[in-house]
Each structure stands twice: as C-alpha cells, then as structure tokens.
Structure to design on (552 residues):
C-alpha cells in the first residue's frame, strides 16, 4: 500500500474516532478507487467549478468520509476542517452537500440517485459536444435499487460513451439481495465491462484512461475494511461503528502492518 | 392544454437552445415537430420515471432547462424521492409537466388517478407548484417560470375551463367579491363547475392557478368570512390553511379509492364535484352560522 493511501485511511480512522460517525469498512473499500479517479480526471482544486473539469459523483454516499479525506489530500481544503464531521452546523455531514463542500458535484446519500444524475450530466455534455467526461462510483449494495438499472439502461440507450461507472464490488450485497456475476449482468445491459483489482491504483487508472464507444463499466473487486484485518473479519459489527481509543490503536497497528 | 404546452415550447425553443424535452413515452407524436427540428434536445427516454427526473437534474446542473413530461401519478408519486433530492435538495431545477391528473383517466381506475401530486409536492422546499386551468394559463405560466432555475411542477388537464382571467404567477384571482359572508376558493379546471354552481349565489369567489407559493395576501382579504375550498385534489386546502386564523372547510376528495371507471364527469358526480353537488355544498355552507 503506497503511503498516501495509508495516510488517507488513518485520517478516516482518526476522524471517525473523534466524531463518532462514519462507515469505515465501506470507506476503506473505495480509497484506491477514489485516489485513482482524482489522480486521473481533469480537475483543479483551486477552482472546483473550472468549466473544463471532468465530473465525479459518489453515488454510494455512505463513503462521504473517504471522499472528504481524498479531496483534502488533493488540496480542496485542509483535512482539519473535516474534524467537524457529522457535528451540528458542520459543513461536513455524514453525507455530502454539494452546496457546502468544494469538489462535490451532487449531494448524495439515498442510494440509487447519483448514477441517474450522472447520466443526465453525461447527456448534457454530449449535447454540448464537450470532451469532458463523467465518472460515477456505485456500490454493490446500492445496485439492489431498481433505479441503478434504469439509469444504466438509459445511459446505454443514449450511447453515453463519455460516462464511466465504477462498481465497488465489496460484497455488501451478500447481506441481502445478492448480485452474483455482476460483470455478466452489466455486459448484458450493453456496457463495456472490465474487471479490476479495486485495490490496485495502477489497474484502475489504466482502465480509467481508456475510452470506448459504449458506456464503460469498471467492476472493482474490493474488500470492506481493506487494510485492517479486524474490519475485514468483523465487517457486520463495524458497518457503522466508530473505534474507541483502544480499538483505534489496534486498527492503526493493523493498518501500519497492512493486515489486509 | 397539451397542445398549448407543445405550442408554447415550440415558440420558446425558436429562441432558446437550452430547452430539452424528456418524455416518458407520452405525447411523443405531439412533439414530432420538436423532434424533427431539435433532434439532439428531444428524448423519449422510456417508461422509467425515476430516471427521467434524475436525468433532468443532471441536465439542469449544466445549464439546460429540461421539461420532463409524462403521466401524473408516475412522475410525481413514484418519483417523489427523485424530485425531492435530485432536483429540490440539490437545487438542480427543472420543469415537470404532467398530464392525466385527478380523474382525466377516470376509466383507467385507481392506478391512473392522481390527486395527491399538488399536496405532496408543495411540501418540498425549493419548488413551485402550478395547476393551470386553461390554455392561456399554461402559456403564460410556462413562459414566466420555465427558466428561473427552480423546480416547477405544471399539472396539465385534458378538460380546461374556458374562463378568461388575468394570469400572473403567484397571484390569486378574485373573480367575485360580493362582500359576502362565504368565500369559495378553488383551483384548476374544476373552476368551470364552480362558477356555474355559484353563479347566482351570495358568495365571494377566488381562483388559484399557483398552489405554491399560494397568494396569502389575497386569502387574507377574506379572513373574516367562512371559507370553503372546492378542489378535485389535495393541496389547495392545505395551502389556504397556512394562513393563520381562518375558518376553512373542504369539499372534494373522499377518503377512498375511486374505483368506478367511466368518464370524468361521472366520477365528479359520484364524489360530489359536479355542478349540482357543488351548489348543494355551497348552499350548506351558506346555512351554517356565520363568523361576523
């Protein structure tokens, strides 16, 4: 694990501990994906509404804390600002508000919404004949929502080749409605599908740089809690739990030792 | 009203390249000319109302003025969360234009009836809720509101009234001020029945095409009278009741599904919204003890 990814994970742990909020395992599953996205897309932290920027939407809004930590790492704001995560009157809610946080393109939280908005944004850029691209990150649990599949059908029908959907296949779906063979399902819907190691920044970036005449869909195989064996082994317990001091120390040691 | 909607859109589109039509497999033939003229801004996106709203929000975020158009219950009740979050909460405004509300599709039964749309949408922040009653109202109100950046709901009907009244967004219309003790308030196409029922009765008559923001100043002018809201939907009564200190009652929707099929006029008669029944309701109101 490259040092910056450890730093981001330690930020997530620290802020979750002090705030008492955050979905740590789902945040940990998307750190590499988010890092790869912001390390690839055209964006300017000094001008978040730069009119030539690419668009990224976190449709699986529960991972907002990871998104904040990534944005801070890329220079959108100081990480100290995120210390108020979830607090009364904080700008940094447990689900992001686009009107409060620079770099957030759409306020998400209710699952199955961000992807539809992303489809509309991609259509807008297509009408404008813009070279800008739209990226959206959805979760496998989120894909239980029918609106996800509606949006994909529409995107494919509209031939939105400027849209890339990243599917965080962190096995959340095993808790309820299971979506096995997800790559085959997306392929059947008409997407250009690739499967990558979701914890390999290099693999994700390599696929993000490719273009297609179809909607691109990157199935990123990940682990909830990646980086700490305690989180991976006890992901149900840790789904929405913040560490106390003792647990924090343990998780930091595990993170340092990369007990994935 | 749908033809007027089409005509207004065609006229506006001649000068505004930001208008995008998103149809839910409804009125497709009606907008054929638009499709021919502006193929990159016409989308019959199919029967997927949730996504129609989300896509409109995305288009709006990049400066377009989307018009989402399909049947009322499906675009409002089914897609309420998309309207609430993707459009209103995100402040990605756009235009939602429904058809077939209340009992325009009487024969299709309860699945196609829609009388909650105005009531539920008016509860959302950052939304305008409009129920035009005539072609003129459709034309004037779309022109004045479509590009203001807000989410605006227009509820079209296939049964407009034919009364020519002044139209200004957000303004109620005092059709008759007889200094009477009873004031009838109504909205939308049912105005035709209400006017006929009240023609020779000693009542004041107020009309609204804008449910949100409702014209509280005009309502307040009649605060010392007994107010009777007559409406073939929910929404207006609740809006009127936001003015404090009023005495308001409601004549309209029953607390049951209206599973009788048939024609609009037959359903209206069954639930007491035909001319004769409305007249009886107003008569009854006139006979109740007065406030002043």
């Amino acid at each position: 694990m490259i040092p910056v990814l450890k730093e981001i994970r330690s930020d997530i742990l620290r802020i979750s501990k002090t705030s008492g909020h955050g979905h740590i395992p789902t945040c940990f599953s998307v750190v590499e994906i988010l890092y790869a996205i912001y390390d690839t897309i055209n964006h300017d932290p000094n001008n978040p509404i730069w009119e030539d920027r690419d668009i990224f939407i976190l449709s699986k809004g529960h991972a907002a804390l990871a998104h904040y930590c990534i944005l801070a790492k890329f220079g959108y704001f100081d990480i100290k600002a995120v210390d108020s995560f979830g607090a009364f009157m904080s700008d940094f809610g447990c689900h992001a508000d686009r009107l409060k946080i620079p770099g957030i393109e759409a306020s998400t939280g209710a699952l199955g919404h961000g992807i539809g908005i992303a489809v509309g944004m991609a259509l807008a850029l297509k009408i404008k004949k813009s070279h800008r691209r739209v990226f959206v990150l959805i979760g496998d649990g989120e894909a239980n929502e029918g609106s996800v599949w509606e949006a994909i059908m529409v995107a494919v029908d509209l031939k939105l080749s400027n849209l890339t959907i990243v599917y965080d296949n962190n096995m959340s779906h095993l808790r309820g409605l299971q979506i096995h063979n997800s790559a085959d399902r997306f392929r059947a819907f008409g997407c250009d599908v690739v499967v990558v190691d979701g914890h390999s920044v290099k693999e994700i970036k390599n696929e993000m740089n490719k273009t297609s005449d179809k909607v691109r869909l990157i199935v990123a195989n990940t682990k909830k809690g990646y980086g700490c064996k305690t989180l991976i082994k006890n992901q149900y317990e840790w789904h929405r739990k913040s560490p106390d001091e003792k647990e924090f120390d343990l998780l930091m040691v595990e993170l340092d030792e990369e007990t994935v | 009203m749908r033809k007027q909607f089409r005509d207004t859109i065609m006229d506006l589109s001649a000068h505004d390249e930001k208008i995008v039509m998103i149809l839910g497999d409804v009125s497709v033939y009606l907008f054929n000319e638009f499709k021919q003229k502006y193929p990159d801004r016409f989308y019959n996106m199919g029967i997927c109302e949730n996504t129609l709203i989300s896509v409109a929000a995305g288009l709006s975020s990049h400066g377009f003025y989307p018009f989402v158009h399909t049947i009322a219950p499906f675009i409002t009740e089914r897609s309420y969360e998309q309207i609430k979050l993707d459009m209103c909460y995100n402040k990605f405004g756009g235009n939602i234009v429904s058809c077939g509300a209340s009992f325009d599709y009487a024969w299709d039964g309860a699945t196609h009836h829609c009388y909650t749309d105005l009531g539920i949408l008016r509860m959302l922040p950052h939304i305008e809720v409009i129920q035009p009653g005539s072609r003129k109202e459709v034309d004037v109100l779309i022109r004045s509101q479509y590009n203001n950046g807000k989410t605006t709901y227009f509820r079209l009907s296939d049964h407009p009234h034919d009364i020519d009244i002044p139209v200004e967004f957000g303004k109620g219309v005092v059709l008759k001020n007889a200094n009477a003790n009873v004031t009838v308030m109504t909205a939308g196409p049912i105005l035709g029945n209400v006017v006929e029922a009240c023609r020779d009765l000693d009542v004041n008559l107020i009309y609204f095409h804008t449910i949100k923001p409702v014209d509280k100043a005009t309502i307040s002018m009649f605060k010392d009278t007994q107010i009777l809201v007559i409406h073939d939907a929910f929404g207006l009564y609740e809006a009127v009741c936001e003015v404090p200190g009023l005495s308001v009652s409601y004549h309209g929707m029953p607390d049951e599904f209206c599973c009788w099929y048939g024609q609009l006029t037959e359903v209206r008669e069954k639930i007491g919204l035909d001319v004769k029944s409305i007249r009886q309701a107003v008569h009854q109101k006139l006979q109740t003890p007065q406030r002043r």
Summary: The first strand of chain B starts at residue 19 and ends at 23. Chain B touches chain A through 30 residues (CB under 8 Å). The domain at 173-287 of chain B is CATH 3.40.50.920 (Rossmann fold). Chain B has two domains: 2-155, 173-287.
